[in-house]
From TrEMBL:
The gene is CDHR4. Residues 1-19 form the signal peptide. Residues 238-344, 341-453, 449-559, 556-661 form the Cadherin domain. GO terms for cellular component: cell-cell junction; membrane. Keywords: Calcium, Cell adhesion, Membrane, Repeat, Signal, Transmembrane, Transmembrane helix. Gene3D superfamilies: Cadherins. CDD domains: Cadherin_repeat. The keyword Signal applies. The chain crosses the membrane at residues 689-710. InterPro entries: Cadherin-domain_protein (IPR050971), Cadherin-like_dom (IPR002126), Cadherin-like_sf (IPR015919). The lineage of its organism: Eukaryota, Metazoa, Chordata, Craniata, Vertebrata. PROSITE patterns: CADHERIN_2. It is found in: Membrane. GO terms for molecular function: calcium ion binding. This is Cadherin-related family member 4 isoform X3.
Length: 782
């Protein structure tokens, strides 16, 4: 209120000054400081009053200009009336005095027609002793803490984070003791003293860290750690360096040394890292180091000492590697050697080259030009052995060169040998000529047919069913590389082009065709350097179709009728069913399955017999018509098919019994011959279809007669209401018109009395008859 007297003085001057109106605005109780607890999350923070001396004080405006530091915790001032405003916290606000303990809110007030005034409210946040943990890992989106397996022992991987620390000292402990980590007094989570084991690699560890204060308050922080597996290097050399010595002028491709690294599970490869020299090479698989050129110190003195850095690495994990230093010393050969042409013997010959065939000769001379005799011989290091021989300086074929073997395929069809050239001088000089002979393949052999020439397949085999394998053989390398095809065009079978497997293509029917004779073409592939010279062979095979029961028996006819007398002897056959089956070897069985009332009929084979009938009206009275259903089965084992034949038997009751009397007679037994009487009774028994047709025809005829009679009566009967037709005739035109009258009996009588109808005619359009009066022209329908 220190500024209140200034306001009143200004107001007094404004009142006393004639014709002058002064407008002023001010904050009555600002600036000031307000204290709030940091646990406060919503509610009123501060209230203040604004005074405006304008004639109409309802027009002034108060706004929140800025917040320092910038946050969104506070709402804009809310007007309560009479110049009073409130400042409130937004719901869900989290104040933290340890981060920010004071906020400065700048408010601006302005009246109409006057400049604005600003003032401040200082919000002081009072700290409270609250312990609150940060649980970031409880968030479903948060990823676990990834720690590599090879992290150093006792390394800090995580520090417990607290939103609010509270007061006093804190203690940290794991809620679950099964985790392999340790935690110290400041909340640092460390790797075990021995580091992670390989068994723990790839596992996920979850635990709660319990934080307790001196005042008994505690909170829990959730931690998720995943140990990521790390590949462990296993490739290593047993020594870090190796020294070797070689002689100069020994020719190229001489083995200098061999290196070997352990580990890598059989996937170790070798390479020369440095220097980048063309004089030495290493086999990436075996680690054998060779010289690529002749080592001549006269031409290249720098070859006397060479340091090679060789690297061995795991081909599946290139970072798993080790290196070794190879110190190669080339010793000088002081004597002049031999010079041969060619220095490396390389040629290509076909495998059909005969034994003793001469190849290109070898020519060697002394460097100093001395005419000394030379001796040529083959070393015993030939691969394969004894393949070539030397006659003077001529290289000859010493054995059959066969490419059609797995051993030669392993050598990539290359014969290796060495020609040793020795002079007769003293001291004796020698040189070696590497020989590399590539043998080209020749298609020598015809593909041979499979030893299997026939097979069987049931006739109900489905599409794609495997029949048999008719793969042939080919002694040319690559072995059995044959393409198969069927020459006949048909839709019953097809053969796999590469395997020789025969499959079913179309439906088979034993009743239509029992045997298939197929010709299979066998063409070898890639057996010759010239791919245009294949050999083709043809093989004949037989496919037998096995009969399978797949058709039901057929009875001719399937429906029969028969009439017998009830007195027919039971051992007399009634009829024999004529049934057959297209399947070979089928045995038909006949069984009555329906209509056999009182079991009066039975089957013996295909024959129908009956038992004694009973037509006693006081006892059992058998039917007069039997509709028997006979099932005919074609087999007693599965699959089984059957059909049903219908037999209708009409039984005519017949009796020879005579009435009995009580008279006792004495009969003299006289031998008499039996008299057999034959009586033929004719009757008409039409077929059922004839009765149906006859009945239907009679009904149609009766309907036609009824319709004709009704039409005739309808035309003769007069109508109750008739309409007279009047015809007026003029001189130039004629016009017919109808006179409409009420249908009453009195008018009808008057109309009939007025007109005398003396004629009858038929209307040409409708065909209806009418009466007419010739004098007046009147008409009446009849």
């Amino acid at each position: 209120m220190g500024f209140g007297w200034q306001f009143h003085l200004s107001l007094l001057l404004a009142i006393c000054t004639k014709g002058v109106i002064i407008i002023a605005v001010e904050f009555m109780d600002l600036p000031r400081t307000v204290e709030v607890e940091e646990s406060m999350t919503t509610g009123v923070v501060a209230s203040f009053t604004v005074n405006c001396t304008a004639p109409s004080s309802t027009g002034f405006n108060v706004s929140l200009e800025s917040i320092n530091p910038t946050v969104t915790f506070f709402n804009s001032p809310n007007a309560l009336g009479n110049g009073t405003f409130q400042v409130t916290l937004r719901p869900g606000t989290a104040l933290n005095a340890r981060e920010v303990n004071q906020y400065t809110l700048v408010f601006k007030a302005e009246c109409p027609g006057e400049s604005s005034v600003t003032s401040q409210v200082y919000i002081h946040v009072k700290a409270e002793d609250i312990l609150e943990c940060d649980n970031t890992f409880l968030n479903t989106v948060a990823r676990p803490l990834l720690v590599p397996e090879n992290v150093p022992p006792e390394a800090v991987i995580y520090t417990v984070e607290l939103k609010r620390r509270g007061s006093g000292n804190l203690t940290f402990a794991f809620e679950n003791d099964s985790v392999p980590f340790t935690i110290n007094s400041v909340g640092e989570v460390r790797v075990p003293a021995t580091g992670f084991t390989r068994a723990q690699a790839g596992k996920l560890f979850q635990t709660y860290i319990v934080v307790r204060g001196n005042d008994g308050r505690s909170c829990r922080s959730f931690l998720v750690v995943q140990v990521q597996p790390v590949y462990h290097n296993t490739v290593n050399f047993t020594e870090s360096s190796k020294a070797v010595s070689v002689l100069e002028n020994q020719g190229p491709f001489q083995t200098v040394t061999r290196v070997h690294a352990y580990g890598g599970e059989g996937h170790v490869l070798y390479q020369i890292v440095s220097p980048g020299t063309d004089y030495f090479t290493i086999d990436s698989v075996t680690g054998e180091i060779k010289n690529t050129y002749n080592l001549d110190l006269d031409r290249n003195p720098g070859l006397a000492h060479t340091l090679l850095e060789v690297r061995a690495y795991n081909m599946l994990h290139p970072t798993d590697s080790a290196t070794i230093i190879i110190n190669i010393t080339v010793q000088r050969w002081n004597l002049q050697g031999l010079v041969c042409h060619p220095a490396i013997y390389v040629t290509e010959i076909p495998e059909t080259s005969p034994i003793g065939m001469s190849l290109t000769p070898v020519s060697c001379v002394h460097k100093d030009g001395d005419n000394i005799s030379l001796q040529y011989q083959m070393e015993n290091s030939q691969i394969p052995p004894y393949s070539f021989s030397m006659e003077n300086n001529m290289l000859r074929v010493n054995t059959t060169l066969d490419c059609d073997s797995a051993a030669m395929a392993s050598f990539k069809f290359q014969y290796q040998a060495t020609i040793l050239v020795t002079d007769s001088g003293s001291p004796q000089q020698t040189t070696k000529i590497p020989v590399l002979v590539t043998v080209s393949r020749v298609n020598e052999y015809m593909p041979e047919c499979s030893p299997r020439f026939s097979s069987s397949i049931p006739e109900n085999a489905a599409f794609g069913s495997f029949v048999a394998n008719f793969s042939g053989t080919d002694r040319d390398y690559p072995f059995n590389n044959i393409e198969y095809s069927i020459l006949q065009r048909g839709d019953a079978f097809y053969i796999s082009r590469r395997t020789g497997n025969l499959y079913v293509l179309g439906p088979l029917d034993y009743e239509e065709q029992t045997t298939y004779h197929l010709t299979i073409s066998l063409k070898d592939l890639d057996n010759d350097a010239n791919s245009l010279l294949p050999k083709i062979n043809f093989c004949n095979i037989t496919i037998n179709v096995l009969n399978v029961n797949d058709e039901a028996p057929v009875c001719t006819p399937a429906f029969q009728q028969h009439t017998i007398y009830s007195t027919l002897a039971s051992n007399t056959n009634i009829l024999t069913l004529q049934c057959h089956d297209n399947e070979e070897g089928s045995q038909l069985a006949y069984t009555i399955v329906g209509g056999n009332t009182n079991e009066r009929f039975y089957m013996q084979g295909s024959t129908l017999f009956h038992k004694i009938f009973s037509y006693n009206r006081d006892g059992i009275f058998d039917p007069l018509i039997y509709e028997l259903l006979v099932e005919v089965t074609d087999s007693r084992s599965t699959p089984r098919f059957s059909t049903t034949a219908t037999v209708i038997v009409y039984v005519i009751p017949w009796t020879t019994t005579v009435p009995t009397t009580t008279m006792t007679t004495v009969t003299k037994m006289v031998s008499k011959m039996p008299i057999i009487l034959h009586r033929t009774e004719e009757y008409w028994a039409p077929d059922p279809w004839f009765v149906v047709v006859l009945t239907f025809t009679g009904i149609l005829l009766l309907l036609a007669l009824s319709l004709l009679f009704w039409q005739f009566c309808w035309r003769k009967a007069p109508r109750e209401i008739s309409q007279p037709l009047l015809q007026s005739r003029g001189k130039k035109s004629e016009r017919n018109y109808v006179v409409t009258e009420e249908p009453s009996k009195d008018k009808g009588k008057d109309y009939n009395e007025q007109h005398h109808f003396d004629g009858c005619a038929q209307d040409p359009v409708t065909g209806q008859y009418y009466l007419y009066d010739s004098s007046s022209g009147a008409r009446r329908w009849v």
